[in-house]
């Protein structure tokens, strides 16, 4: 159903990555794709009855333009919804005009952060005994220096919130596709190095990431020069340490449109300052990944250096890794793996993947811990030694590390790396070799002397891959892309035989801001979907197609999914089973079971009933 | 992370309130002086890039509040300092007497690995006041104390006139640098696949 041509992923009987002998299941994603059809069609059976019911239970909600229903195990969620979304607005906004209601998205989950210390909006009384220090203003003019009062209240965070044009322009220019074409347009490395916290442009950036040591020494900043931000870094440390001193922890500070999210990992502090309206839970997970990336490069043994010497400066150890971090941060806005905790596979014919899997299996049996063949962000084949299994987050971080480090492309390499979810304390060694521009082989071993043996293996693997045409097939698959919603057959089901009739038929254009919406996309107004198999740790998403064309629209959908994911996995209220959410841009549907999660976006004008088919 | 190796030095300035800590820092970083007194609340942070023996350094200067009520912030602020600057007012005996307390308190709270040799610098500030006529702490007395505490470098400064400020901070940078020189090779373990039964953390928090 997903593909009607005879191409790669049409296989209904495939079992592609099952070469992995480990007890952890790694059957084929292809197989599970077929399940999507059934699930897409059967959603209707599950959800039709509750949804109209619940929607009617909601207020018509003109002030927030939010229509949301959650069919959850706990109905309290729904009961509390209206008042809650209201209180959210109160909490986050100082002046009512400030919330961007344009999109009609009000995220309920945000207002419920547990253990949040300060979610006060009233100009942040985070201060250490009222440090709205006026004294610091005297320095502000100094050139080449930065000053900020430790009273982040008045002078610190407040001033960051200006208009956010700066980043917005940039965002449009960037490709925000979920697909693999992204990094062609992504410029690696840090930009805007000449900025610091006194720069207007720096303050206008929508999303900052900082890593610093517990003594306040800067380690990494997404924008600007770390050393010039030393004063800002010190301020962050002062806030974190002050709260720590009181035996407490600061997790989140809200200041107007901005959220400041903190993550303390022993002697390493990570901070995100964002006005992107992402849920703070998402930002927090992004900080976890950023920390994981650092561990991947250095291992957690770095903590020992700080124990021995609190003033330890770890920046030299991270020399040259700017691009690794910035590319990871970039992936937070396009790669679903960053919030789904799952990886995606390159669509390939069964025989092709079999061929790749078989040779990798041979390597794994010869003492290699993991053998991974990838094409950009997508897995072609993955094999682990007995009992070893690779966490999807580790795979994300490893692939990011390899792809963002230019030097791997030019020669075969043997590099120490650490898999934070496998063993955060110790190094492994990875042999990396690019077979062509996109496809690369990674062989992980615990043996630091294995280079020559692995090189020999690589030569054998390369021969097999060439002989069985795997590399060409992979390239072709990259070009062809994944599934397209347009290819999904309109599927008349007993419930709705008549409904599909309007599909694909032109509708009058909406008077929405986008101005480009007609009923496009797949059956029932389906625009896009992501399917995640929990059992396989894998996900598959459809390619973007009309009308989700521009990077801006794609990024918006990405963020909407991200929000959906967060609200579905709310720790206090969740996990939920299904969620239905409609706003100006789309109707979003999420369905979570023990085995899979399905996220789908539909035309906002599609009938409630018909997109359930 | 900078491509060229640079060093960041964390410098803490301590001393009684009103001795001129903020003014010294302001004079050093911004070449400005204001007669108006504004109490520092908590701490202020400034950075200054300097060149020293052909190397680039960034001084991260922590200008702390002198009032006692802020001393509970100590642990949070002092951790990982590369150098500590003790400031007193040559016209106020009490501020000189308190240097010992400041030093002790710092060593307790920052607990540096080698307290005996932790780099301090002492500054006797406000030498310009009244043409030096209201001075109560003699240079000799101050130097004697510094010698006693392990030959702490001593400077007499005037933040107002900008006297000796540059020199003092050069010395601060030099001393901070000295203490940070010891380098170790970073050598984490390698996974021993044979003995340990590695398992992936199943704790996917979703």
From TrEMBL, chain A:
Domain FUZ/MON1/HPS1 first Longin, residue spans: 207-328
Listed GO biological process terms: protein targeting to vacuole; vesicle-mediated transport
Biased composition (Low complexity): 145-159
Biased composition (Polar residues): 9-31
Region: Disordered, residue numbers: 1-32, 82-165
Superkingdom in the source lineage: Eukaryota
InterPro entries on file: FUZ/MON1/HPS1_longin_1, FUZ/MON1/HPS1_longin_2, FUZ/MON1/HPS1_longin_3, Mon1
Domain FUZ/MON1/HPS1 third Longin: 525-610
Residues covered by the FUZ/MON1/HPS1 second Longin domain: 367-460
Role according to the record: Plays an important role in membrane trafficking through the secretory apparatus.
Recorded family membership: Belongs to the MON1/SAND family.
Name of the protein in its database record: Vacuolar fusion protein MON1 homolog
Species this chain originates from: Heracleum sosnowskyi
Automatic annotation (TrEMBL), chain B:
SMART domains: RAB, RAN, RAS, RHO
Compartments reported by the entry: Endomembrane system
GO cellular component entries: endomembrane system; vacuolar membrane
Biological process according to GO: protein transport
Gene Ontology MF annotations: GTP binding; GTPase activity
Entries under Gene3D superfamilies matching the protein: P-loop containing nucleotide triphosphate hydrolases
Keyword hit for Plastid: no
Membrane topology: Lipid-anchor
Alphabetized UniProt keyword annotations: GTP-binding, Lipoprotein, Membrane, Methylation, Nucleotide-binding, Prenylation, Protein transport, Transport
Keyword Transport attached: yes
InterPro entries (UniProt xref): P-loop_NTPase (IPR027417), Small_GTP-bd (IPR005225), Small_GTPase (IPR001806)
Domain of life: Eukaryota
Family (UniProt): Belongs to the small GTPase superfamily. Rab family.
Protein's name in the database: Ras-related protein Rab7
């Amino acid at each position: 159903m997903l593909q009607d041509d005879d191409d790669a992923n049409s296989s209904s009987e495939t079992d592609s990555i099952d070469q992995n002998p480990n007890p952890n299941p790694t059957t084929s994603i292809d197989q599970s794709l077929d399940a999507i059809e059934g699930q897409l069609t059967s959603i209707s059976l599950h959800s039709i009855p509750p949804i109209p019911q619940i929607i009617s239970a909601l207020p018509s909600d003109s002030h927030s333009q939010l229509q949301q229903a959650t069919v959850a195990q706990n109905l309290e969620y729904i009961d509390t919804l209206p008042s809650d979304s209201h209180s959210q607005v109160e909490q986050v906004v100082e002046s009512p005009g400030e919330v961007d209601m344009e999109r009609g998205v009000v995220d309920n989950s945000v207002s419920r952060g547990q253990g949040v210390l300060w979610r006060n909006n009233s100009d942040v009384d985070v201060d250490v005994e009222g440090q709205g220090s006026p004294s610091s203003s005297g320095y502000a003019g100094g050139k080449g220096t930065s000053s900020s009062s430790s009273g982040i209240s008045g002078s610190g965070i407040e001033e960051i919130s200006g208009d956010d044009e700066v980043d917005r322009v940039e965002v449009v220019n960037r490709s925000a596709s979920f697909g693999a074409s992204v990094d062609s347009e992504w410029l690696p490395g840090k930009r805007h190095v000449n900025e610091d916290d006194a720069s207007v442009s720096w303050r206008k950036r929508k999303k900052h990431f900082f890593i610093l040591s517990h003594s306040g020494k800067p380690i990494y900043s997404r924008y600007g020069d770390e050393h010039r931000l030393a004063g800002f870094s010190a301020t962050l440390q002062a806030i974190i340490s002050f709260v720590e001193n009181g035996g407490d922890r600061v997790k989140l500070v809200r200041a107007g449109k901005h959220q400041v999210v903190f993550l303390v990992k022993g002697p390493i502090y990570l901070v995100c300052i964002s006005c992107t309206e992402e849920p703070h839970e998402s930002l927090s997970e992004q900080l976890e990944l950023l920390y994981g990336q650092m561990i991947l490069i250095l291992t957690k043994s770095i903590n020992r250096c700080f124990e021995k010497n609190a003033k330890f400066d770890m920046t030299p150890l991270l020399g040259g890794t700017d691009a690794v971090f910035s590319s990871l941060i970039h992936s937070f806005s396009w790669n679903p793996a960053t919030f789904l905790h799952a990886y995606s596979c390159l669509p390939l014919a069964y025989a092709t993947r079999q061929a790749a899997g078989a040779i990798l299996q041979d390597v794994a049996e010869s003492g290699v811990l993991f053998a991974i063949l990838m094409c950009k962000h997508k897995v072609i084949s993955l094999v682990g030694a007995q009992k070893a299994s690779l966490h999807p987050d580790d795979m994300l971080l490893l692939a990011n590390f390899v792809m963002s480090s230019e030097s791997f492309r030019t020669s075969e390499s043997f590099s120490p790396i650490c898999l934070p979810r496998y063993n955060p304390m110790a190094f492994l060694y990875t042999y990396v070799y690019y077979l062509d521009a996109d496809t690369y082989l990674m062989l992980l071993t615990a043996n630091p002397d294995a280079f020559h043996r692995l090189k020999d293996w690589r030569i054998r693997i390369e021969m097999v891959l060439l002989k069985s045409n795997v590399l060409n097939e992979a390239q072709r698959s990259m070009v062809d892309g994944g599934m397209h919603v347009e290819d999904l057959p309109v599927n008349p089901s007993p419930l709705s035989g008549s409904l599909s009739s309007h599909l694909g038929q032109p509708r009058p254009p909406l008077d929405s801001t986008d101005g480009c919406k007609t009923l496009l996309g797949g059956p029932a107004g389906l625009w896009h979907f992501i399917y995640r198999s929990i059992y396989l740790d894998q996900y598959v998403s459809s390619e973007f197609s009309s009308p989700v064309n521009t990077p801006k629209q794609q990024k918006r959908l990405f963020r909407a999914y991200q929000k959906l994911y967060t609200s579905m996995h709310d720790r206090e209220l969740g996990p939920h089973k299904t969620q239905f959410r409609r706003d100006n841009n789309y109707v979003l549907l999420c369905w979570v079971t023990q085995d899979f999660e399905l996220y789908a976006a539909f035309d906002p004008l599609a009938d409630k009933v018909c997109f359930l088919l | 992370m900078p491509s060229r190796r640079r060093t960041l030095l964390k410098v803490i300035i301590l001393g009684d309130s009103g001795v001129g800590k903020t003014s010294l820092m302001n004079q050093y970083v911004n070449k400005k002086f204001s007669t108006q007194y504004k109490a520092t609340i908590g701490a202020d942070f400034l950075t200054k890039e300097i060149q020293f023996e052909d190397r680039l350094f960034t001084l991260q200067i922590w200008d702390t509040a002198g009032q006692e009520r802020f001393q509970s912030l100590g642990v949070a602020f002092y951790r990982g300092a590369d150098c500590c600057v003790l400031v007193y007012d040559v016209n106020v005996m009490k501020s000189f007497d308190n240097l010992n307390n400041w030093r002790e308190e710092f060593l307790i709270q920052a607990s540096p690995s080698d307290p005996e040799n932790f780099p301090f610098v002492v500054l006797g500030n406000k030498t310009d006041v009244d043409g030096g006529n209201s001075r109560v702490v003699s240079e000799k007395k101050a130097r004697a104390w510094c010698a006693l505490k392990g030959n702490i470098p001593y400077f007499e400064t005037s933040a107002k006139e900008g006297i000796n400020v540059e020199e003092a901070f050069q010395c601060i940078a030099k001393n901070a640098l000295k203490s940070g020189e010891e380098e170790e090779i970073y050598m984490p373990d390698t996974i021993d696949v044979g003995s340990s039964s590695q398992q992936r953390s199943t704790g996917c928090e979703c």
